[in-house]
Design brief:
It is built from three helices and five strands. It is an alpha+beta fold. Strands 1, 2, 3, 4 and 5 form a five-stranded antiparallel sheet that branches.
Length: 120
């Protein structure tokens, strides 16, 4: 297992989807987010059948970054119960999977670790 995940979520409109995608990339919890065309979702909610237009996001991340990614989605998502599904990636182009790992690794700080240790 390579530790890469494909996370799926749906948002109510393109602007909300774009804002979330931007935040996930800025926070380095996702390497890439694909915003798909609007789709029609039909589902059971609170005893009735609902139909709505939603904008799906396909989010590429790692198992290590997933807890923070889920936290950010939950905090920014307008739905009471957002769809957040993580699917393990069992295979893929090794260079691409390496890139996902690199892009979801927090950037090193430019500050020294302590007053005694010089910045290199």
């Amino acid at each position: 297992m390579n530790g890469i995940l494909l996370v799926i979520t749906n948002l109510p409109d393109a602007q909300t989807a774009e804002q979330l995608a931007q935040r996930l990339i800025e926070e380095r919890v996702a390497a890439c987010v694909n915003q798909l065309a609007p789709c029609t979702s039909t589902y059971r909610w609170r005893g009735g059948i609902e139909t709505s237009t939603e904008v799906p996001l396909l989010i590429k991340t790692t198992q290590v970054a997933y807890p923070r990614l889920e936290q950010l989605i939950r905090a920014a998502h307008p739905y009471e119960l957002p769809e957040i599904i993580a699917v393990p990636v069992s295979a893929g182009l090794p260079a691409y999977l390496d890139w996902v790992n690199q892009e979801t690794t927090p950037a090193p700080s430019n500050l020294p670790l302590s007053d005694d240790e010089p910045c290199t």
